Amino acid sequence: MEYKTKRLDIKKFIPEYIPIMFNVWGSDRDVGRYMPEFDPTWDLDTFTEHIMHTFRYEDYERCIIKERKSNEVIGYISIFQEDSRSKSINIYLKKDFWNKGYGTEAIEGLVEILKAEGIGSIYATCDHRNIGASRVLEKNKFECIDVIKGERVDIDGRVGDELLYELELIRVLYNQ
Predict the structure, then answer these.
(1) Read out DSSP for 39-51?
(2) From CA 36, how far away is CA 148, in angstroms rounded?
(3) In what order do the strands lie in the sheet with 159-168?
(4) E strands of 68-175, at which residues?
(5) Phi and psi of 104, rounded to 5°?
(6) How far apart are CA 9 and CA 11, in angstroms?
(7) CA dist., res. 65 & res. 74, Å (int)
């Protein structure tokens, strides 16, 4: 999947991006603080192994986010096919690009693409302490539909709740 927004080029992930991704967010404790499976002891080899492990699954699509002005890779999007009508998404951004609308813009473009593909719902989760992620999802009209108590453990070992968000794109009505 590839698309453009006002300031971003979203490109299909290829393994050659892994060293850049490691430098952008894979080795940053602040970015990884609330990411499931983040390991602050990763080196490039273990990070590569982590990324390539999910790369083997055909239900995943991955994209990198490039800022058009600087041509810098600033993030990563993971898209998982849940079932025939829904997908789950995750987005990771370089810390220097937080609070500048890049996450909102990247997801806004992704929502338009998935809507055009006929996807019924998009899901996303985040740690309840990750205010920035919650804000990005809510700006894109995602609704918090569940709180899973004690599901998230951050890199400092603190337990938190997981928020489950949904953006319903196509309402399906069933006859009873």
Answers:
(1) -TT--HHHHHHHH
(2) 14
(3) 3-4, 8-12, 60-67, 72-83, 86-93, 121-127, 159-168, 143-153
(4) 72-83, 86-93, 121-127, 143-153, 159-168
(5) -60, -45
(6) 6
(7) 6
Contact 95, 77 (CB under 8 A): no
pLDDT in tens, 2-27: 999 999 999 999 999 999 999 988 89
Specify the CATH number of the domain 3-168.
3.40.630.30
The amino acid that residue 128 corresponds to is H
> Is the full-model pTM beyond 0.70?
yes
Is residue 163 within 8 Å of 142, Cβ to Cβ? no
- Residues pairing with 111 in the sheet: none
The ranges assigned to domains in the chain are 3-168
